[in-house]
Amino acid sequence: MKHISQNSQNLQLVTKTFNDIPFTISTRYQGIKLLGAGSYGTVLLALDTQTNTKVAIKKLNPLEDIIDAKRMLREIRILRAMAHPNIVAIKAAIYDNVSQESDYFGTVYLVQEYFQADLHRVLKNPKDLSDDHVQFIMYQLTKAVAYLHSASIIHRDIKPSNILAKDDCSISLCDFGLSRQIEEYEEEDNKKAQNFTEYVVTRYYRAPEIMVSSQQYSFPIDIWSLGCTFAEMLNEGKVLFKGKTYVQMVKMIFEILGKPIQEDLDQFIKNKNAMEFVQSLPSVPPQSIKKLIDYSNPLAIDLLDKMLVINPHKRITAQEALNHPYFKEIREKTEEAPYKGHADFTFENDDTISFEQMRIMILEELNKLGEKIDIPGEIDRLRQLREKRRAQKLKK
Ligand SMILES: Nc1ncnc2c1ncn2[C@@H]1O[C@H](COP(=O)(O)OP(=O)(O)O)[C@@H](O)[C@H]1O
Ligand SMILES: [Mg+2]
């Protein structure tokens, strides 16, 4: 099935279906095949006929509620703001507003640089990774995380499938949609489980503080996830903590790494039930991951131990990790500069923003891509819709 429509940019959009998933994109791009599907988008490999290069086009799932809308706004805003060799760049966006119904929000597509694989796929053949590869990948990741953190952004979903890789071993972090508020972890999990009956929520990379105390988490959660990913690379692609539930995860973590002393626990477990549960776990003295992972480079193990410190206040930071001797020989200090701009995420905690308003903010955000997208008219239509909704609410 093919249909041709016109968007406001006077770009011709063509619909083509890949594995039953329609992509309505500019004729400039020729779809080749589906690359992957996460829980929030589907990614197509395409040829950009203008530059004759391969690109990846991520079709974002339709917005059903404010959580979806926040997620989309966050992803686009972060991608637009970040400029770093190890963070995936947004080349362009496509907005398909083909339906003219008044209560309609179009489909958003993000055009990104194409990567041959993600780390999850690479780790299926762990023998392909030499010590040098692991070191280089970890350096790039640590650099990307240090940059993100310098912009006060927490990724929150670092895991092998969100790390893109090229054949030359250069890598980029992707997938910036995950929520900031901890309650939303639960909501997100429930949503994923509802939408995808066979979808298993991956908790393997989730830091212990997320599981034992709801509000207390920050930048260190990314370091934990990075550590779990690192461990997988050092240990033949085996997932480090493969618990099925939060309880199982916490048990495994405390059994393998040992139980921190009470003073440490007090620093990050604020929930009484969680504290009682942790206290009931067997007292294993803190131990190095060396017991579990037999790896030849002691510097790698030393850095990993520092990333997997259970008390988030004592976990190594991304900036400190860059200074670790493991990276000494390969550092490119010019690429370690902090973020310079200002990215505004006040919408995250603003409960007064309506769903309609959030959709307008997404279009305004897309509009800021300048030449990379052009969507006049749409914003006005959505503004009118917002006013209509407001008036309806007032009447009630
Ligand atoms: N730029 C890209 N190049 C190649 N593959 C990609 C690219 N972006 C995403 N992918 C693939 O698609 C998958 C899903 O993309 P992701 O951005 O993580 O979306 P989701 O939010 O749905 O998880 C990734 O795990 C990866 O395998
Ligand atoms: Mg993903």
From TrEMBL:
GO terms for cellular component: cytoplasm; nucleus. GO terms for molecular function: ATP binding; protein serine/threonine kinase activity. The keyword Mitochondrion does not apply. Residues 29-327 form the Protein kinase domain. ATP binds at K59. The keyword Kinase applies. Keywords: ATP-binding, Kinase, Nucleotide-binding, Serine/threonine-protein kinase, Transferase. Gene3D superfamilies: Phosphorylase Kinase, domain 1, Transferase(Phosphotransferase) domain 1. SUPFAM superfamilies: Protein kinase-like (PK-like) (SSF56112). GO terms for biological process: intracellular signal transduction. InterPro entries: Kinase-like_dom_sf (IPR011009), MAPK (IPR050117), Prot_kinase_dom (IPR000719), Protein_kinase_ATP_BS (IPR017441). This is Protein kinase domain-containing protein.
